[in-house]
Each structure stands twice: as C-alpha cells, then as structure tokens.
Amino acid sequence: MNPLMNIGEAASAAGVSAKMIRHYEQIGLLPAAERSDAGYRLYGEREVSVLRFIRQSRRLGFSVPQVAELIGLWSDSQRSSREVKTVAQRHLADLEEKRREIEQMMDGLSVLVKACHGNDQPHCAILEKLAWGSPAEHRPQHKPQIKKTHGKAEEPGTGAASHIDLMAWMRGVQVHHDAH
C-alpha cells in the first residue's frame, strides 16, 4: 500500500504548488482530497499522477476545459486515440492562430518603433500613428489613473479579456505609412 501524502508532499512530488492543488480541487479538475482525522488533505499516487498530467498539459497551453477533456479521455479505457488527437489538433490550430496574431502585432509595432526618432523632441511617430485619424484637438486632456482591483493596481494586458481585446483591436488596425 502506498502511503498518503499531505498537500506539501503531493505538491513537491507533482511539481506544482499547494495553492494550485487547492485551485484544481475547487474547479473540479482534481476530486476533493481525502481528509485526515485532523482535517488535513491527503493524497495518493493516483492524485499525484493526475497533478503531473495537469502540469504537463498546462505547460503545453491547454485550457482548463481542454485539460478536463483530456483527463476524461485518459480515464476512459474505451476511448480512441483519434479523440485525443482531435483535442490536440484543435489546440495546435488555436496556437497557430495566436502566433499569427502575435506576428502581426510584432510587425505593426516594429514599423512604429522604426518610425520614432526616440530623441528629446516632443514629436513622436508612434503616438502619431496610434492616433491616426483623430484630430489633434481631440488629444486627451488627462493622464489615465489606473484603478486598483482587490488591493492591487491592474497592469495592462494582465487579464485574458484585455489580451483578447488587444488581439481584436490589432486585427482592425492598419499601420499607415507616410509617403515621405
């Protein structure tokens, strides 16, 4: 019989943090742990194997729903490898699309960076290009004050929604080149 491990031991064995184990239990990727008489979580080799599987899947960028689907397939001895491959192919196609979007952003940003002299003068080609089509008199009269959420300042681009919004915005932005 394999001895049971506490959450710290299981975390160490699986290469994840105890916080992530609790999170995976909370969202249902990992079943609720057995508890000791004192109420401490206890894990066996099976749970550690699932945690390793989750870690490896997440390192490859699979989403939580995709990981859940893969765990379901892993647990189904009647599955076909075709089903597993379909999940992986879908994910690969998503990653390829994200790569194309990032390459487009990098290309656009590279053009902007090259257009800027980066000197002590106030004129900036980057700002000019970003504000393309907006009259100068509509330039903002304030500097934004980032609001804090849950005691922390929200950094630009940290949330999935802001990343998605940026991707959608970039698809609609065309970098305009000056004739001179």
TrEMBL record:
Chain residue ranges for the region called Disordered: 135-158
Coiled coil: 85-112
Main location class: cytoplasm
Pfam families given in the database record: MerR (PF00376), MerR-DNA-bind (PF09278)
UniProt keyword Transcription regulation present: yes
Location relative to the cell: Cytoplasm
Keyword ATP-binding: no
Name by which UniProt lists this protein: Cu(I)-responsive transcriptional regulator
